[in-house]
Amino acid sequence: MVIIGESIHVIAKAVSTAIKERDAKAIQDLAKAQADSGADYIDLNVGFLRKDPEETMQWVVNTVQEVTDLPLSLDTMNPVAMEAGLKVCKKRPLLNSASGKTDSKEQMLPLAKKYNCDVVISVFTDKGMPSEAESKIESIMDTVAYANELGIPNEDIWVDPIVLPVSTAGEGQKLAVSNIEFMKIIEDVLPGIKSTVGLSNVSNGIPVELRPILNRTYLMMLARYGLYSAIIDVLDKELMGICKGERPNIVDLIYRTMDGEEIDLSSLSQEEINYVKTTKVLTAETLYSDAWLET
Amino acid sequence: MEYRAPIESYSGVVREITIGKGEKALKIGGENILPFHFFDEGSLPNPPIFALEVWDMEPTDWPEWLLEPFKDVVSDPIKWAKRCENFGANAISFYLTSTDPATKDSSADEAAALTKNVAEAITIPLIVYGSGDDKKDAEVLPKVAEVCDGMNLLIGPVLKENYEVVGKAILAHGHLAIAQTPLDINLLKELNVKLCHFFPAERIVIDPLSSALGYGMEYSFTLIERVKQIGIIVKDSMTQMPMIANLGGECWKTKQAKESKEQGLLWEGITALSLLLAGANILILRHPEALRLIKETIGGEIWQK
């Protein structure tokens, strides 16, 4: 799996401060730590950059390129900042991201063609975020067809079904399931297409100590159906171990749980029990609560 | 081709709970069908019950047509409770409003003594609600539980903030708990899981919070409906408790109920009927005419099936 490191993200106070104060070392430390942990791409989520979009984006790109040869994933909704970043990338970057929204189709997708880069396309459209797997597929097929007409082949497109928090009352679990369904179908309807997800969002909003197991479990579930890449916390060693295929027993247990097998918990370790319970939450077999590991 | 109506049969059962002791005892829950699905396989052994509200102090913000049936007894909770019993309530829901630091901040001892007197004076079960101030309730409700030891009252609200201290006292003195969370199924389940680490699930009633018609009732409706479905169809043990819809207060504080008596009665009646259809097992009302209205609407014979 292609791993994109998520740590350089303006939501983190340290990152937004470092960008504002042009503190190169802080940004470079994060880039190096992720490169050392085995990231394949470094995501640069710089926000919208209302002020000095071009200069700021180029500073971030160049700052990171001074310490790593890894390709970059340029993550902004601002097409001006995006183009400025694409101009100075040394390796073929990933444009993160475009969508089916009119603005995005008109301003972001042409950049992917112009700079001959890979591009993430999400299922968003002008109508919002489709919630069912079928409507996600429908909307992504429309946008991919549009990209193909611009001359962007499926092989350069990484579709993103959009991961949302599983804890969202009522809807979160359905959405988690819809992404699994999406992954099952996507390769058949769009041959050669690649895929990615912003994994950590699945556990957004829940107690911080409970987040890793949700992230890890969901990644294994999506990977079962061929997820090509993921934007993740590469500093989570356990998660990286999973990506490298170091936990085949856990993977097997998760698959059996997904298939509805009655698993005898009494023969399992606490860690294994936790993975079974977490899988059942993510398949919506059991109702979510923050106490899901306690029952 | 002959048409055959599909008949569903589910394996989940809502826990049956008995409120009150001896001759006052009343059962709720126990159903293994969805609300009013008498055509399916299974039964609803205990019809939903209706409680009327009584306060431990004179209400100041009730419209005159709501106060009218009780106006000579509102300063005496015991007489008020007996009056409600005569109006045909199946239970009394007693509010310790005066203990709220924002009203009279009356003491836990006073509240507990009064609660015991009310409980002893009536021949139907008693539900007790603290003020909802989580810190004050953590003093008041354990005292109520202790003074009313063994009476098997239904006591709440047990909240995320105070479930340990309140829950332990309720259990130690042989009562039942109302677990209350703010209109969210995930939080509702979480509180039940945490409470059940030391508290028997067989002694819990869920209060998912009820909203009035036009003020978010559809949220309460879908939540109650979903809790019931997950309990009966999916068999999630943490949602298989009976539910209480505390709706009277919500209805009578609406603009519409304050404008006219007729609107108030309809507001309370329609909200109650809706939440009943969603699956509530206990409904708390304020106005005896609304109680009569809804009982007439449902009719008695439906429960004989």
Describe this structure in words.
The complex is a heterodimer of chains A (295) and B (305). By secondary structure, chain A is an alpha/beta fold. Chain A has helices at residues 13-20, 24-36, 53-65, 79-88, 102-107, 109-114, 133-150, 172-189, 211-224, 237-243, 248-258, 270-282, and strands at 2-5, 41-45, 72-75, 94-100, 118-125, 157-160, 194-195, 229-232. Chain A contains twelve helices and eight strands. Chain B has an eight-stranded parallel β-sheet. Chain B has a two-stranded antiparallel ribbon with strand order 1-2. Classes of the chains: A alpha/beta (295), B alpha/beta (305).
Describe this structure in a few short sentences:
Chain A is an alpha/beta fold. Chain A is built from twelve helices and eight strands.
What is the secondary structure topology, with strand pairs?
The complex is a heterodimer of chains A (295) and B (305).
Chain A: E1 2-5, H1 13-20, H2 24-36, E2 41-45, H3 53-65, E3 72-75, H4 79-88, E4 94-100, H5 102-107, H6 109-114, E5 118-125, H7 133-150, E6 157-160, H8 172-189, E7 194-195, H9 211-224, E8 229-232, H10 237-243, H11 248-258, H12 270-282
Parallel strand pairs in A: 1-2, 1-8, 2-3, 3-4, 4-5, 5-6, 6-7
Helix pairs in contact in A: 1-2, 3-4, 7-8, 9-10, 9-11, 9-12, 11-12
Chain B: E1 17-19, E2 26-28, E3 49-55, H1 64-67, H2 77-86, E4 91-95, H3 108-121, E5 126-129, H4 134-147, E6 154-158, H5 163-172, E7 176-180, H6 185-195, E8 204-207, H7 217-232, E9 244-246, H8 248-252, H9 255-259, H10 261-278, E10 282-285, H11 288-298
Parallel strand pairs in B: 3-4, 3-10, 4-5, 5-6, 6-7, 7-8, 9-10
Antiparallel strand pairs in B: 1-2
